[in-house]
Amino acid sequence: IAAGIYQVFDRLGLDYRFADPKGDPARLAGEVLVVSGGGNLTDLYHDCRNFIAPRHAVVERLIILPSTITGHGDLIEAFGSNVDVICRERVSHAFVTTHARDCRVHLMDDMAFSLDVEEVMSGTPRYRVPNWKEAGRYLRRYWRLATLPKPADKRVFNCFRTDREKTRVAVPADNIDLSAVLVAGVKPEFCAHAGTRDIFAT
């Protein structure tokens, strides 16, 4: 998702910077704040809500990119006319529409569908080199890859989620949770791009 978002921003020629999640919300006064899409605005998580809550009324405009939203109805009710909420499926759209008072609600494909796979697989993108901490997070994935269990049947690749978004399906012993093994972070752009490339290469 993150790699797709960065590509779209590049195509549009947008000049952007990352907001500090621990920064003073007042510093974003008069700014356009774009919140990455995904599944963070459900009852399973609270970090995205905690970031948005003190900022949505301060910024000039808040845009929440295509997301699954099935929780935090009170936050949606508090959104003003400066907020655009984009849902990535009809269940979320119905939920948000029920709670929306002044904000605008839209329905759109997940940003992952905007991904140019050929560009991802072509090599290193035009992004800054990560700092040592970010690079270390990226390189740790290779240790995780080296210690993966061997599949019992090479014709079958089990890759069920094992985090809080997991289903009730029994997880096989040779399961490999790709979202955990190949995670490289969503910023800087290099990590999101490289992590996405590795998933396709796998």
Main β-sheet, in a few words? 5 strands, parallel
**Helix share, percent:** 25-40%
> Number of helical segments?
8
Please provide the count of β strands. 5
Outline type: globular
List low-confidence stretches: none
Which structural class do the helices and strands define?
A: alpha/beta
Mean pLDDT over the residues: 86
Radius of gyration: 19 Å
User: Topology as H/E string?
Assistant: HEEHEHEHEHHHH
SS strand fraction: 5-15%
- How widely separated are the two ends? 17 Å
Write the layout of secondary structure elements.
Layout: H1 2-12, E1 32-35, E2 38-41, H2 47-52, E3 61-69, H3 73-78, E4 83-87, H4 90-99, E5 104-107, H5 117-121, H6 132-146, H7 178-181, H8 189-201
Parallel strand pairs: 1-3, 2-3, 3-4, 4-5
How would you describe this protein?
With 202 residues, this protein is an alpha/beta fold. It contains 8 helices and 5 strands, in the order H-E-E-H-E-H-E-H-E-H-H-H-H. Strands 1, 2, 3, 4 and 5 form a 5-stranded parallel beta sheet that branches. Helix 2 links the parallel strand 2 (38-41) and strand 3 (61-69). The chain is globular and about 55 Å long. The two termini are 17 Å apart. The mean pLDDT is 86.
